């Protein structure tokens, strides 16, 4: 299945893939997984700060999407539907982790540096990534859907199960907090 990068044909191709996957074509669903895996993984990584958790959640999301594919309405936004499933998985995982928290042994090795950390090699980008990581989860989720995925506020609201106005407010608040966090760095760079 050849994928095209023409923005005008992407929704048409996506609808065709979804319809074929709903009719049992596993290769069509595999093409959808291939199309969204990196974006979904990256978003979940930014939310969880853990590559293994992000990978598990991404896999679980695609499994649940496959199982529920029959209930997906062709013509609606598949990406928003998929990210909604991912967000629900993330929220469930956090609730379960909060219930099962145990003290961390003191002799654990430091986590290995992952591909995202290696890619963030410039100081300003690292500071920004740290500032994003310090955002409350609800603000971070909305901000990353807007900044990384380019979703409109209506779709952000659908993914997170909030109103469009709340989605706008969360992105605005996240930007405010990031500007405040980055202000000292920006002041240092001025001549």
SSE string, helix = H, strand = E? HHHHHHHHH
Strand content: under 5%
Overall geometry: globular
- Binned, the helix content reads over 70%
How can the largest sheet be summarized?
Answer: none
User: How many strands?
Assistant: 0
So what's the oligomer here?
Answer: single chain
> Total helix count?
9
Distance between the termini: 53 Å
Structural write-up:
By secondary structure, the chain is mostly helical. It is 72% helix and 0% strand. The chain is built from nine helices and no strands. It has helices spanning 10-22, 26-48, 51-67, 78-99, 115-119, 123-134, 137-147, 153-160, 164-189. α1 (10-22) packs across α2, α6 (123-134) packs antiparallel against α9 and α7 (137-147) packs across α9. The radius of gyration is 19 Å and the shape is globular. It starts with 9 loop residues before the first helix and ends with a helix. The model is unreliable at 1-7 and 116-121 (pLDDT under 50).
Key phrases:
mainly alpha; 9 helices; 0% strand; 72% helix; 191 residues
Question: Summed up, what is this model?
Answer:
With 191 residues, this protein is mostly helical. Helices cover 72% and strands 0% of the residues.
How would you summarize the topology of this molecule?
Layout: H1 10-22, H2 26-48, H3 51-67, H4 78-99, H5 115-119, H6 123-134, H7 137-147, H8 153-160, H9 164-189
Helix pairs in contact: 1-2, 2-3, 2-4, 3-4, 4-8, 6-9, 7-8, 7-9, 8-9
